[in-house]
Write a structure and sequence with these properties.
325 residues, alpha+beta, nine-stranded mixed sheet
Length: 325
């Protein structure tokens, strides 16, 4: 099960502070966590190391190494000769360096699979208030890293709508890019200036996000526009049965009318409400395969932040802005 939450000593490798996550997973803390507290509660205090690889005949495999989790000796992946592991403790320390006064606190953190992927979600000060209502979007930084050679260390911005815990995926890559990426090369401690750069990027990102959200909240699509918006996100298949896509679009229309937070008068029936019909579907309603509730919940979490769910929400954001413009 490549995408479920890792386990450490039989416990799901995740921690959270504040409102219990929709998936109900992890160790609950009663205060925002420091890096040291988060890494322990999330079961992510393990290290990783490189080991040589051999064929079944005992011959060394050139230019490839295995990455192992040092507490369990599980192989997390295979990598090339230039790969340098970035330890979990380094990731937390890197994110700490973004706010020099220690004001950054972790709200969730954890590990996926066998521990080959880790993440940490930290809240920035302030929030975005839509049209002076109780519809609030909080400002978060999301760091994720892999120990299997499949991705670099990445820090990006993840707005979360408080009323329904919907996560937005807003890359804005056509502008200056979002967040930073660091390849597994060299010493991470030498990249502290990159971490401090993130804070400036984040502040600029969220300043520019507010008027775009206001634009969506001020635009009220026609019935044809709304149907076209949902059809562009979930079109009928070129070949095959269209029933599933039609059922999804019917659910999106229902969430547009009756989803969580959609009864706020100032945003009701707006493009902002249409966007959050999609995000609520992806984050809470979209069917997810898995062997048991834990597996399904952790796979959905992985999808909504890093996989197909994130891509769907990104497309919804792009199309909503296009519609409002």
């Amino acid at each position: 099960m490549a995408h479920n939450l890792a386990t450490t000593s039989g416990q799901a490798a995740m921690m959270f502070y504040g409102q219990k996550p929709w998936h109900g997973l992890g160790v609950e803390l009663n205060h925002p966590a420091t890096a040291a507290e988060a890494i322990e509660a999330a079961g992510s205090g393990y290290g990783v190391d490189l080991v040589p690889l051999f064929t079944q005949n005992g011959d060394p495999i050139p230019r490839r190494k295995g990455v192992i989790r040092t507490d369990t000796n599980q192989v997390l992946g295979t990598v090339g000769p230039g790969y340098t592991p970035i330890q979990n403790a380094e990731c937390f320390g890197f994110l700490d360096a973004i706010v020099a006064d220690g004001g950054l606190h972790y709200h969730t953190a954890g590990a996926l699979g066998r521990g080959e992927k880790i993440w940490m979600l930290a809240k920035l000060p302030g929030h975005i208030r839509v049209k002076d209502t109780d519809d609030i979007t909080e400002k978060y930084l999301l760091l994720h890293n892999s120990h299997d050679g499949t991705s670099c260390l990445r820090v990006h911005f993840t707005p979360i709508r408080v009323v329904c815990q919907n996560t937005l995926s807003i890359a804005e890559r056509n502008a200056r890019g979002q967040g930073i990426s660091i390849r597994h090369r060299g010493d991470l401690s030498a990249r502290v200036h990159e971490a401090q750069k993130v804070l400036g990027l984040a502040n600029q990102f969220y300043e520019e996000l507010q008027p775009k959200i206001d634009r969506l909240a001020d635009y009220y699509p026609t019935s044809d526009q709304l149907h076209g918006f949902f059809s562009a996100i979930y079109p009928d298949p070129v070949d095959g049965n269209a029933t599933r896509a039609q059922n999804v679009r019917a659910e999106l229309l229902r969430l547009f009318e009756d989803g969580i937070g959609q009864n706020i008068p100032e945003i009701r029936h707006s493009a902002w409400a249409a966007l959050h019909a999609v995000t609520e579907y992806v984050d809470h309603k979209r069917p997810t395969r898995g062997r048991g509730d834990l597996d399904r919940s952790s796979r959905r979490l992985q999808s909504q932040w890093f996989g197909s769910g994130a891509r769907l929400k990104q497309r919804a954001w792009d199309l909503a802005l296009e519609m409002a413009n």
